[in-house]
Amino acid sequence: MEREKAYNFAYLDEQTKRMIRRAILKAVAIPGYQVPFASREMPMPYGWGTGGVQVTASVLGQDDVLKVIDQGADDTTNAVSIRKFFKKTAGVETTTETGRASVIQTRHRVPEDELRPDQILVYQVPIPEPLRFLEPRETETRTMHALEEYGLMHVKLYEDISRHGHIATTYAYPVHVNARYMMDPSPIPKFDNPKLHRMAALQLFGAGREKRIYAVPPHTQVHSLDFDDHPFEVQKWDKACAICGAEDSFLDEIITDDAGGRMFVCSDTDYCNRQCEGVAK
Amino acid sequence: MSTQRDTELPILAVEGVSKSYGEQIGCADISFDLWPGEVLAIVGESGSGKTTLLNCLSAQLLPDRGRARYSMRADGLRDIYDMTEAERRFLMRTDWAFVHQNPRDGLRMTVSAGANVGERLMAIGQRHYGNIRASAVDWLEKVEVDAGRIDHSPRTFSGGMQQRLQIARNLVTGPRLVFMDEPTGGLDVSVQARLLDLIRGLVTRLQLSVIIVTHDLAVARLLAHRMMVMRNGHVVEEGLTDQVLDDPQHAYTQLLVSSVLQA
Amino acid sequence: MSEQRDMLRAEGLAKTFTLHLKDGLRLAVLKDMSFAVKSDEAIALTGPSGSGKSTLMRMLYANYRCSTGALNVRHKGEWVNIAGASAQIVTAVRQETIGYVSQFLRVIPRVSTLQVVAEPLIERGACEQVAERRAGDLLERLNIPETLWGLSPVTFSGGEQQRVNIARGFAAPYPILLLDEPTASLDAKNRQVVIDMIVEARDAGTAVIGIFHDAQARDAVCTREIKLPERAAA
Question: What is the ipTM of this complex?
Answer without folding.
Answer: 0.90
